[in-house]
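Course assignment 3, question 2. Fill in each field.
Student: A.L.
Task: Predict the tertiary structure for the chain below.
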Amino acid sequence: MIASLLSLGAVLDAADFIPDFASARGIFCGLAWIATALAMVLTVASLFAGVEADGDGDLSGVDSDTGGGDVGIFSLRAIIGFFLGFGWGGFMAAAAGCGAPVAALCAVAAGLAMFFIVAFLIRAIYSLKSEHVFDSAALVGKTGTVYVTIPAKGEPGGQVQISAGQLVTMAAVQEGETPLPAQTPVVVTAASPQQLTVKALH
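Answer field:
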């Protein structure tokens, strides 16, 4: 069967990749294309809905994905990975001449393999992300400089750069009556994972 799978490139043509749902191979092919389309949509969506950039793409919102529901073993990505492996594994087995029962077993095996591979990769990626997350309260009292002018009276839109093991850029507000221009030295008076409250350092 392995030899048959390896020779598929010489046997299949473009028409074989059009799902017809009239045979096991056609059904697996249809499932494979659906899973492939979903995987592509999810990938594109994650490019636009990932960590919210804060000007330099640093820590503002860096932990928005780390506590979430797409890290577990039954995440959407892992489930789509299962159907991706299931569809293409079953299609390849059926195209190699395997009967429906054997093709189904191959599909399940390929699906489970993809499922656990994707789940492992997701957890590894988020584990790497979590290494860069720190307690925002630790920033209180630290000094930095204004990166983007901070409006007066708590209005949003400003950014500061703080050295916290590495230079990070975060959203910032201040309660003063006048805006703080770029390069103004500031000290952090309050902090949350989303933004800092600062005042001019006199």
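Instructor remarks: The longest strand covers residues 167-173. The mean pLDDT is 75.
Grade: pending
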